[in-house]
Structure to design on (962 residues):
């Protein structure tokens, strides 16, 4: 009989769930052997480069391609007129709107795609772009979303004039896209009318961009003889891309192969379908040659997928003790010129209604209006689930503002309002069912770790000396793992995910998933899940994703959905295999399947030491000796439709010091406790948290996609758009608690976006806290030194000796 | 455009090719010589994904003309491992989880390769400063610093590299 030490050793050798095993992806990446889209080198590849609009809003009077076409090495110049006969000059967006693939008679944002030059190489293509002559008649640009619904506002979308609907409900104005309301308006208004205390605050989640280090691109290759199309693409959701390409091109999905190879970061930037992809595909079909399109950094920051731009007004009603009675929120959402945000179809404001946060709020009402402006389209979930960063930002700022009004400590007010551990599963006022959580324990642990009381005392003393020190708290609840197909779909496809596992005769295995890693190390973590479930070493479990010809259909990776949905599919597929393995083991051992116990990597006959079959032995038998009537082989497929979302949470504290002469903020300490339920690979989780916090730091402290009054983009290079280096980036302290999800097969909840979602309000709360004793209630992000200095200067703090 | 013949040493081997005078080193490395380890992240010298070693200095090969490498010595990530043995930096990045998507990694490795020769026993802050021309969007840099320190220690150890 196995000793405990012996079985523990066997378990460790599997390197399964809970093991910080090194990543399987690393050997190729550290030796320059990754295979990213721009590395794909098909014989005879042509290069596509895009002619873009210099104006934010203008009519196109003429396009003259002659000089470009005369340039040796240029094969084609495509405009909207060329795409019209194919009905490809417009494409559907994931949000029910349409977007111009190439500008059709007018341009609606600066850098909009106007024409595409296809040439022998990228240099000639760029020369060709310079030779395309476009004559524009500039129109007044609409930049400020607050003016979008003015009576005299310029009409951005002439194609929608007369249509009272743009895919997401009734429109109230030519520049209006949708109005989305949720909650109990009358009930909320009533509570506000009779409330002891109310607070109201306008705040902005500014326009930012996910800016992964690899830009977007694709290589499209149409084989005219076979009639099939292969597309290598930087996509977080290759199966969805295949469906979209099929709908657009009329080719059956079986003739289209979409491959996401290694992807150099996504963060939401690589979910959508962009005009560059479509034009490369069209060019390849027309020319019968592979066509590569790789956007430059400037194109990336200018056109493919901004995030946020939520202009929010939050209101809380409470009693004198700070106990919240109601929440009311009004949002103006700037969606740019086309509504192409990537949300589940039925959710025009994504999952924003999770904005009641970690607090027990009896009644709430939210209204979101989406409008068009002369800016690039997008509204993607930048390292978050759909609009969850905005939601968490709102409630975490509002609770601080309430605390300030009532002069209650910012930690104390959270304890007074937390949903209590015994209230789970908890049904929120806006109709979400939180699966599990223990918020007070998390915050308490963090406060002890940083000596919160000591920090407040220090802050008080510093304030006496005129020094600025901020302590930010954020106790967020996230909603991830989209999602139950009854609630979530993309273009009508439910947001399930999938896994297919084949165990080979000698006890190694291959698994394929419908998700797509962009750096999260799926090859490692999924293998760990299978290792634990099947008792095979993770080392010999090969994980593949991203090739629609081999992987089962899945909705891809974003919104921290891989572990909650793909991970559940993986566990369940492995369990199907284990069920079959049990029957084979019973057959080999000549006992009933019920007489067997599963132990780490084998089935054992109950009460009969030594009578056992390892999974490796069973795998061999699956291919030569199975019970009568059983199919040979050892494989399974699972399409997992989650019963609910998962709700990871965390408690963060940020301590920063602000120089009252320069406005410079120095993050002294950032302590992040995350609860993502069961932890599969703690090393990878910690890495994800470091990365998410760094992106949160970037957003809170410096990132802004800015425009001038004419719609000219002011921040589309890495000179102007803040991406922190190792020098600015703070050092992170991480911690965790484990509250498993009751409905997930492994109890796991997902983690990668939590630090981004929770980190941003924590930083902004810290900066605001530094000024809260001076009566300041809201300083907007990004908290650059200059912006902070402006507050200091207005308050005259820089003049004090 | 008339092409120019250039020859240089790439990862210890002599190479020659014809290039346009305007062609950038990164494009010649990746497209002519098919060494795709070095990446293009910005084409404006900010991100460092294209960092290679040219004549004993770190350069961002997106803003070096290929003709400037004529007669020179270029080392890229593909040349870092020797005789099937990973360089201590490669080992460090793997051991300390210094990478996620891997896109910045070749540039990080090549910059730290040169940095550790400039400063063999750096403090953590010196590593951060020395690597500040290389952006990473995934890791938050803490594990990159650890990876470089792992290599620094290993290189200092007798029998290291």
């Amino acid at each position: 009989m196995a000793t405990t030490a012996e079985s523990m050793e066997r378990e460790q050798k599997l390197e399964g769930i809970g093991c910080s095993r090194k990543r399987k992806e690393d050997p190729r990446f550290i030796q320059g052997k990754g295979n990213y889209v721009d590395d794909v080198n098909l014989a005879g590849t042509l290069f596509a480069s895009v002619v873009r609009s210099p104006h934010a809003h203008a009519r196109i009077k003429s396009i003259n391609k002659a000089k470009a076409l005369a340039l040796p090495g240029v094969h084609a110049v495509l405009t909207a007129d060329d795409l019209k006969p194919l009905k490809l000059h417009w494409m559907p967006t994931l949000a029910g709107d349409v977007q111009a693939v190439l500008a059709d008679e007018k341009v609606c944002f600066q850098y909009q795609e106007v024409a595409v030059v296809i040439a022998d190489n990228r240099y000639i293509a760029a020369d060709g772009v310079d030779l395309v002559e476009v004559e524009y008649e500039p129109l007044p640009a609409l930049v400020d979303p607050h003016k979008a619904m003015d009576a005299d506002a310029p009409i951005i979308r002439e194609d929608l004039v007369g249509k009272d609907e743009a895919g997401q409900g009734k429109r109230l104005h030519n520049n209006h896209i949708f109005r989305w309301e949720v909650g109990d308006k009358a009930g909320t208004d009533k509570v506000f009318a009779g409330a002891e205390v109310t607070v109201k605050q306008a705040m902005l989640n500014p326009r930012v961009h996910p800016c992964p280090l690899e830009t977007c691109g694709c290589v499209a290759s149409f084989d005219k003889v076979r009639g099939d199309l292969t597309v290598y693409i930087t996509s977080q959701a290759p199966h969805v891309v295949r469906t979209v390409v099929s709908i657009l091109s009329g080719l059956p999905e079986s003739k289209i192969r979409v491959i996401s190879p290694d992807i150099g970061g996504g963060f939401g930037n690589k979910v959508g379908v962009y005009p560059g992809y479509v034009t490369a595909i069209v060019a390849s079909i027309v020319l019968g040659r592979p066509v590569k399109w790789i956007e430059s950094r400037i194109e990336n920051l200018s056109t493919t997928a901004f995030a946020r731009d939520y202009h929010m007004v939050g209101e809380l009603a409470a009693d004198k003790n700070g106990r919240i009675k109601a929440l009311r929120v009004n949002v103006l959402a700037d969606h740019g010129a086309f509504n192409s945000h990537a949300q589940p179809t039925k959710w025009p404001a994504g999952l924003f209604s999770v904005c009641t946060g970690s607090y027990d709020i009896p009644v709430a009402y939210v209204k979101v209006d989406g409008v068009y402006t002369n800016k690039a389209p997008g509204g993607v979930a930048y390292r978050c689930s759909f609009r969850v960063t905005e939601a968490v930002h709102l409630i975490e700022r509002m609770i601080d503002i309430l605390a300030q009004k009532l002069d209650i400590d910012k930690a104390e007010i959270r304890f007074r309002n937390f949903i209590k551990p015994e209230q789970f599963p908890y049904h929120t006022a806006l109709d979400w069912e939180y699966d599990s959580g223990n918020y007070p324990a998390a915050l308490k642990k963090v406060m002890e770790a940083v000596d919160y009381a000591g920090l407040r005392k220090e802050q008080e003393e510093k304030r006496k000396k005129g020094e600025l020190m901020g302590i930010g708290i954020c106790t967020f609840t996230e909603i991830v793992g989209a999602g139950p197909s009854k609630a979530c779909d993309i273009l009508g496809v439910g947001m399930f995910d999938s896994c297919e596992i084949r165990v080979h005769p000698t006890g190694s295995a291959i698994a394929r998933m419908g998700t797509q890693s962009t750096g999260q190390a799926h090859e490692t973590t999924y293998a760990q899940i299978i290792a634990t479930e099947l008792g095979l070493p993770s080392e010999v479990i090969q994980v593949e994703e991203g090739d629609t010809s081999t992987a089962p259909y899945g909705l891809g990776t974003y919104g921290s959905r891989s572990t909650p949905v793909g991970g559940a599919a993986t566990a369940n597929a492995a369990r199907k295999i284990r069920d079959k393995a049990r029957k084979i083991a019973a057959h080999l051992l000549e006992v009933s399947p019920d007489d067997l116990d599963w132990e780490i990597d084998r089935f054992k006959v109950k009460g009969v030491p030594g009578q056992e079959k390892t999974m490796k032995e069973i795998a061999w038998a699956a291919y030569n000796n199975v019970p009568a009537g059983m199919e040979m082989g050892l494989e399974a497929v699972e399409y997992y439709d989650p019963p609910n979302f998962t709700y990871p949470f965390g408690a963060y504290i940020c301590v920063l010091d602000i120089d009252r002469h320069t406005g410079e903020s120095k993050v002294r300490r950032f302590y992040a406790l995350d609860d993502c339920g069961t932890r599969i690979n703690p090393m990878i989780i910690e890495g994800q948290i470091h990365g998410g916090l760094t992106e949160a730091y970037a957003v809170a402290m410096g990132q802004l996609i800015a425009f001038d009054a004419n719609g000219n983009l002011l921040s589309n290079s890495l000179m102007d758009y803040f991406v922190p280096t190792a020098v600015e980036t703070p050092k992170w302290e991480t911690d965790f608690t484990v509250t498993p999800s009751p409905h997930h097969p492994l109890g796991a909840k997902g983690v990668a976006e939590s630090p981004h979602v929770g980190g941003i309000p924590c930083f902004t709360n810290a900066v605001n806290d530094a000024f809260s004793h001076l009566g300041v209630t809201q300083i907007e992000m990004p908290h650059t030194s200059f912006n902070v200095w402006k507050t200091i200067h207005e308050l005259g703090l820089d003049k004090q000796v | 455009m008339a092409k120019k013949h250039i020859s240089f040493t790439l990862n210890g081997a002599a190479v020659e090719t014809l290039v346009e005078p305007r062609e950038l080193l990164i494009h010649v490395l990746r497209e002519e010589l098919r060494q795709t380890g070095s990446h293009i992240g910005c084409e404006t010298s900010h991100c460092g994904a294209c960092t290679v070693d040219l004549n004993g200095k770190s350069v961002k090969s997106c803003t070096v003309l290929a003709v400037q490498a004529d007669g020179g010595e270029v080392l890229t990530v593909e040349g870092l491992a020797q005789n099937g043995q990973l360089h201590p930096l490669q080992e460090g990045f793997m051991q300390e989880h210094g990478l996620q998507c891997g896109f910045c990694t070749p540039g990080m490795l090549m910059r730290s390769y040169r940095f550790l020769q400039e400063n063999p026993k750096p403090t953590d802050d010196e590593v951060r400063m020395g690597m500040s021309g290389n952006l990473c969007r995934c890791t938050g840099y803490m594990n990159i610093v650890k990876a470089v320190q792992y290599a620094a220690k290993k290189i200092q150890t007798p029998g290291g590299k």
Q: What stands out?
A: The radius of gyration of chain B is 16 Å. The helical segments of chain B are 25-32, 88-95, 105-118, 124-130, 142-156. The longest strand of chain B covers residues 4-10.
